[in-house]
Structures are given as structure tokens and as C-alpha cells.
Amino acid sequence: FWPARSLHADLLPISLYSMNNLFGKLREPGYVLIQWVEGLDVPNYDVVTFPDTIIQVLLEPSSESISLGDRAWFDCKVTGDPDAEITWTKEGEDELPDNTQVMGNRLLFVNVREDNGGIYKCHAKTKAGPLETRNVLNVGIAKRKRKRISRKKEKRAHKEAGNNDKKMKHSSSIFGTWFTSS
User: Fold this and answer.
1) How many angstroms from the chain centroid is the CA of residue 29?
2) Contact between residue 24 and residue 14 where contact means Cβ atoms under 8 Å apart
3) By the 8 A CB rule, do 113 and 139 touch?
4) Which positions, given as ranges, span the membrane (predicted)?
């Protein structure tokens, strides 16, 4: 008795489990407008949607090993929602350390200190709801590199030092034994 419905370009098919097949249109994220319902179906339906995109929050550190004095950063990448709002927190702290800067989706550490170590969270307000991810910043002690002189330079330096000793002995013999200590 009801006229058959055909899907137009402005209608998206949604899967509804009820006694009849229903068609609706997605209006905004999280809301469905049911356009055609028969009799007893009005209060009794479940909506199952399959989104086109999957929203995930990925955290990428600049390096796995950070030393004191280094420059480091975390990048928070939200896939599936380019308009997501990003905020950063450090677990157990009210504010981020004073040597950090938030630049877009990046948390930048300038001149890393020992007290920068800890768990940092990226909070993303997405169209699917709030999401968060966390990463640990481990700060190691910087290893001092010793400057090593090559073997040739060591031999040359040793040889030159030996020549200087000979010159000193030779030059002191001009004055005789008056100026030498006995």
C-alpha cells in the first residue's frame, strides 16, 4: 500500500533492524533523521552505522633516547578528523613544564631537564568524542665523549716532547755548569 522508496543521492543507506526496512538520512554526526516509519516501528528500532573513517590518535616521539640538554618533541596525529582539538598534559601535574612549547599538534621540549621525565598525554576532542593517548619521556644522562688523539698524533707529540728535552739539555750546556743544579 505504501509507495516504494528509492534512494536518492542525498540519502545515505543505514542499516536498521526492525520489522520493516527503513531509510533515513544522516544529518549530523551522532544524529539520524528517520524519514519513513510504519505503524508499530516508531518506538522500536536499533541504529547501526558504519563510519567511513576510523578516528585514531597516534603519538610519535622525536627519539627513543633523550639526554639532558637535548631538544625533543611528541607529535600527536589524529587520523580521520582533521578538525580535532589537541591539548597536552603531564600526568600528576597541573601545568606543563616551563621549558615546553605547544606548537599545533606538537609538544616541544627545549633543553631537556631531568624533571621533564614522566608520562605525557595527548587529548583529542574529535567528532566521535574525546580520545587520548600517552607516552613516557625517559631522560638519560648525557654521555661525555672523550676526544681521542690518533696514534700518529700521539707519536708525533711524544717525539716532539723528546726533542724539546734534548734542545734544553744542549742549550744549557753553553753556560757551563754554573746554572745547572747538582
Assistant:
1) 28
2) yes
3) yes
4) none
Q: What letter does residue 12 receive in the DSSP assignment?
A: -
Helix ranges (H only) for the chain are: 151-172
Q: Which residue has the cell 750546556?
A: 173
What CATH number should be reported for the domain holding residue 106?
Answer: 2.60.40.10
**Closest C-alpha among 141, 137, 157 to residue 149:** 157
Q: Is the pTM of this model over 0.85?
A: no
Domain extent at residue 39 = 1-50
Q: Give 166-180 pLDDT, tens digit per residue.
A: 555 544 445 555 555
Q: Is residue 41 part of a domain?
A: yes
3-state secondary structure of 126: strand
Q: What angle do CA 120, 126, 127 make, to 5 degrees?
A: 170
